[in-house]
Amino acid sequence: MAGRQERDGDGATPPEHPTITFSPSAEFPPLNETELAALHQVGRRWRTDLRDQPPRDARLPLDPSLEQYRHRPAPSRFHRLGRIEMFRTEQHGQLTATGSTSTTGTRLGRATGRVRRALLGPPLASAAVLQERMRKLVALPVLSSDLLSSVAYGPEAMLAILVLAGSGALGLSLPIAAALVVLMITVGASYRQTVYAYPHGAGSYLVASDSLGPRFGLTAAAGLILDYVLTVSVSVAAGLQAITSALPALTPFTVPLGLLVIAALLAGNLRGVRAAGKIFATPTYLFIAAILLLFAVGVVRAAERGFSPVPPPTVGAVEGLGLLVVLRAFASGATSMTGIEAVSNAVPVFKPVEWRQARTTLTWMIALLVVLFAGLTILIHLNGLVPRADETLLSQLAHRTFPHGPWYALIQATTAMVLLLAANTAFNDLPRLLFFMARDGYAPRRFLHLGDRLALSNGLVALAGAAALVFVAFGGYTQSLIPLYAVGVFLAFTLSQSGMVMHWRHHRERGWRRRAALNAFGALLSALVLVTAAITKFVAGAWVAVLAVPLLVLFCRHIRSHYDAMRQALALPPAVAEAHQSSGQGGGRARAPEPDTGQAAPGTAGGPDWQVAPGTAGGPDSAEGSEEARPNQVRETSGPGDLRVDLTPGEVRHLVVVPVARLNLAALRALAYATSLGQPTFAVHLSPEQEEADRFRRQWETWGDHLRLETIISPYRTVIGPLAQYVEALHSVRPEVTLTVVVPEIVVRHLWHHLLHTRTELRLRRALRDVPGVVITSVPVHLPE
Amino acid sequence: MAGRQERDGDGATPPEHPTITFSPSAEFPPLNETELAALHQVGRRWRTDLRDQPPRDARLPLDPSLEQYRHRPAPSRFHRLGRIEMFRTEQHGQLTATGSTSTTGTRLGRATGRVRRALLGPPLASAAVLQERMRKLVALPVLSSDLLSSVAYGPEAMLAILVLAGSGALGLSLPIAAALVVLMITVGASYRQTVYAYPHGAGSYLVASDSLGPRFGLTAAAGLILDYVLTVSVSVAAGLQAITSALPALTPFTVPLGLLVIAALLAGNLRGVRAAGKIFATPTYLFIAAILLLFAVGVVRAAERGFSPVPPPTVGAVEGLGLLVVLRAFASGATSMTGIEAVSNAVPVFKPVEWRQARTTLTWMIALLVVLFAGLTILIHLNGLVPRADETLLSQLAHRTFPHGPWYALIQATTAMVLLLAANTAFNDLPRLLFFMARDGYAPRRFLHLGDRLALSNGLVALAGAAALVFVAFGGYTQSLIPLYAVGVFLAFTLSQSGMVMHWRHHRERGWRRRAALNAFGALLSALVLVTAAITKFVAGAWVAVLAVPLLVLFCRHIRSHYDAMRQALALPPAVAEAHQSSGQGGGRARAPEPDTGQAAPGTAGGPDWQVAPGTAGGPDSAEGSEEARPNQVRETSGPGDLRVDLTPGEVRHLVVVPVARLNLAALRALAYATSLGQPTFAVHLSPEQEEADRFRRQWETWGDHLRLETIISPYRTVIGPLAQYVEALHSVRPEVTLTVVVPEIVVRHLWHHLLHTRTELRLRRALRDVPGVVITSVPVHLPE
């Protein structure tokens, strides 16, 4: 093996590509040059705004680094000491969270944390990423269970088509199997080249995106997503069928058992890569050993008969033998190849040198596949077996080969095991695929998150959820879905290998023609299978795949466009006019694309147009009203919501509104909090009747009338509507003012206590969510019981 | 009738009681003297705190009364003009919301508002309360459908027990019916007295609470709640059964049809009292007319036979005839009286003079009940009818009386209608009962809310929900629940009339002995029925009531204790030491009950113990650290959550924390917002790895390092846990500081877009909800699409 590696790689390391790892920092993409420049520029405006402020840290009432509090007891909510111990200090006062901070402090959070830890083990630090890599001997079973298990149904699927043309057609199985072996070796060799060319992750999505463009990459990804979800459901169903046919009493529990298996697979994978490898290695090796034993004995038996095939029982032809039947048999047999892609996506989880280890593993997998597939097909032919509805071919073969003894049971048991574990390959692969897609913005960003066991937890959970849904929807009888996923798999193969052809053409390294030719041949064969499968099985279910793939692609592109819009909306304005810095007033507006129209010099346009009520001294401050004359224009141009203002403290103009229902402790705390911010503040009271409004105003005067009080009569007794629309009206007359609504939030101990409270805070927040420029501040009030 | 009224009331108005009306202000109970005094005192401390501030309204950037903006177009979110028109000005700048503000401005809110208006009609202003009162002719059918409809099954229930002792025992029906008539007249007369004594609402709950104490009142209320919920389910089921026996094709749709009927009843009642009256008046009058017609013809037929009873068919005895059977028959017949209570709770919805109108209506109801019940029993006896499983007695009687023609159908149809409408009495009564209970704190306060059609909407919805639940749970076959509610009803009767006895004893007006004796007799008879029903029907289902009533009482008391605890927690400290005013520093703590221990003079206890990092000028302000030496003590004594501080602006000590993940527009807006508040502010960044932390710090420095930045490494890659616990740690080292966490909240257009965002704001809010003294401020960022 080593020699071949050297030859392929010409002794050199593979070509350079941008490093792609499952780094936890993937969630925090760095800023580019333009963004940094914009940031710097905004920062200069801040300097102007903060000119007259005291030094940065002067007024902080505590040391945010917690340095001073670390070595003495600090009180906690639960009267325990040592809350600070949850953070360690590394170099230069750097805080580091300890494992105990993974859970939130709520009772539910802590309970969940305990269960989680018991099931999945303690959290793993990011530094452990390398330790979580796989050796070849672990990777082989983890990544190959899908591929190898499919030989349990691949030959049968092929023969089941051939037998439609009568038992005479069964003889064709050998040439078709030979063609399939060629296909396997071609595709395998192709993928070996792919791993070499894309050493940081060589899945169809990556390769097709890179070489053919994102549209093709997404198409391949959609095919694979479909394939993986179906693989899990179908494998679990197949494994359970093997069990329930041995223990029929379990049949009524198929659905709960299946969900249990899916949950177990999920838990195993959430534990992390190495742990999953340990759990899953033995059954796969046992299966390989069992099948090889079957061969050995079968060959010996056949040798005793002089290798003359037993004639199969006569079966009448249902259809004529034609090219179509042969093609269908070929396409059906090709389902044995599902799972071949597993290694290529998984390159980054191998121990270094990753690509080398991955390639060797791939070679071994292909070799095992060819041996098992060809061996089984030949033995079936020699024994003259015919597909039957009530017993699988593998079971028939095992029965024939081992009429007595425990061997039959061993083969059936390991087959069931490996079929169940085949689902595990999808668990290994799909989260990685989603990670790559999320990195490009085609899948939700949460798929970038490395869970606390360094697994891509969100992808695992999504896969388990989708597979469970399919499993339940089909009541655990998912065999009819098998034709569906040939389409997805071979779509990915075809695109990946076409991509490789383009790759070689583009790079034109030494020997590129040979490599391109190999990939082109692989692409051609894959495309042949794809077209055959899509056409011949269209009615049987392939139409779902033909429909679902473009829909998934559209969906992914929609996600991407949402993220693009968000990034654009959240981008800092690229080039702010330098002139702004000299103003130094902060009343100006700094919408970057139109540096002049957006900035009326403060106090110019007409001056204040609201005169204060007589009796109160002083006028409104000078900066106000600058936008008043053309509010509509401002509204029209503010395309991306309210993102046009307020990038520096000087630009924020405050007005604090405190809705007050009753003058109790909660209301006074909210009023005190709001007033203590030192910004213009007033209170608003909503009253169902004039009498109540008057009564409230008298209470307000008893208190001292320290703030302006606005009472609104709500004759229809609704609360949220008028309040929200009042705030909206305030916003609409002065869109440039940032309204802060300060609401006391009643925090209850028990969930059902929510029934006893009107939850005004929550409902107001919801109603005001759409209004730009309205900040909601919840002042929590904790009820004792 | 008028003459009797005069005699009962002795021509005078009834005794004075505190006015109880369904006023919309009930949701805003006034402050008592102690609270006002405390409010005044807190207000004086505010004056000290605000001494150096500019005048109250001086800095407001706009006129909160919107006065100035009313008569010119203002822009709105939807580019429509005239948002301000949603508020009208009454006298002295009083804002009044118009009907269009009932709905919130969101798309969903507006759509819901339209549907609601179409179904329920436009909102009614509070001033329309009087117009929504009922005349007698409307009140009679609305309030009596339950009572009168029960004659459709009451006599049958009685005979069904008697026939168990053989057909010979059926002759006892006449004396038992006579006893029941006595019971009806007694209870009716008792309630007439109750309405007179409690002219503002005379339900069992109110009477028993007032005279016997809240525990008895709650017991009566629990019985009635049970009764009302069952009444709705059972009536709807009975009505539907009458329909489905005529149109068997509808039988499989019993459950959806029942839900539809309940929904229709709910909608009709949500439209309001008068509207409901209009809908429900005709069927009840038709039913009365139909039954009276049946009597007339039946009596004529019997006269033709010379009033000699037809001998009933011989039925064998199942049990011996004893006192028990007679008592059970009596108790079963008494179910005819369910619904008699309806008027007494509803006194306030009559037109003035309320109690007079209510009493007349009650008299008419009782008279009709006696006539219908006695008449039916006699006719059944004369016709020698026996209860049969397949046909109701009423139906048999109608068949016998009208062998031909449409009359039989008319009687069946009106019976079905009135049975369906019987549920409506519960819809009229239960929300009022819940209103009274909520006013006393024994039910959720939302039952106080008058909906926009002046109905007690929340009570209506709760009743419909509970009844629908029972209906669905029993699959629409709820007849077995009938024995259940005799217990609830007669429990309420007994308590209410015992309460009246105590009432007369207490007040000793002229003629009180006579009145007390009548009520005592009623109480005795009711108690007799109650005990009989509870014992004889214990196994048949009465045990549920026997169990449910105490549980409901416990539940109500729990609600009350929650509200009590809340009121106590939210009450202003009653007597603040005057000494506090002279301090004027604001650093002091003012937990009133311990005026000295709570107030350390600022700056005394040890002084600042955190030295600012070298290189930054200035120290922490002088007031800090005063609580540092004894944080545990402070924590221990702060019983009711965090309600001990921050009642005046000077007491609030701020620290603003801004979690920043990435330096984009959203983060800078949050930073600008936080900084512009002018309070001590710093930022915190959570990083999965040291490299990312360093990179972020470089970006921070590019921006200008305007705020202190604390980076926390989260090696387990969790976000919410470490952030929440960091904030908690900050809180624990300085519990007296109010932490404001400023988080940008991404607002998306479509709900499913939430999947694409991590919703840190929401999760952080949840995690921090339990930490006292932490205020969360959401700065919304609206995404364009």
TrEMBL record, chains A, B:
Gene3D superfamilies: Amino acid/polyamine transporter I. Its main location: membrane. Residues 1-29, 577-646 are annotated as: Disordered. Residues 595-609 have a biased composition (Low complexity). It is found in: Membrane. InterPro entries: AA/rel_permease1, APC_K+_Transporter. It is a multi-pass membrane protein. This is Amino acid permease. It comes from Plantactinospora endophytica.
